[in-house]
Amino acid sequence: MTEDSSKRRLGRDEIIEMASELIAIPSPTGTEVTIMTWVTEWCDRHGLSYEVFTKDPAQPNVVISVGNDDGPTLVMNGHLDTVPVSDPDAWISGPYEPRLSDDGKKLYGRGASDMKASTGIMMLMCKLFKDTSLQGRLQAHVVSDEEMAGSKGTVFLMEEIEAGRLIKPDYCLIGEKSDLKVRNAERGLFQIEIVFHGRASHTAAARVTGINAIAKAAKGILALEGDIDKFHPSVGKPVISINMIEAGVAHNVVPGEAKIHVDRRLIPGETRESVVAEIREKLDAVAAGDPDFKYTLIEDPHGDFIPANITEEDSPLVQAVQQAVRDELGREPEFFVAWAGATDGRFYRQHGIDTVGFGPGGENAHGANEAGFVDDLVAEADVYAATIEQLLIG
Ligand SMILES: [Zn+2]
Question: Which end of the chain is more exposed for a tag (fewer CB within 10 A), N or C?
Answer without folding.
Answer: C
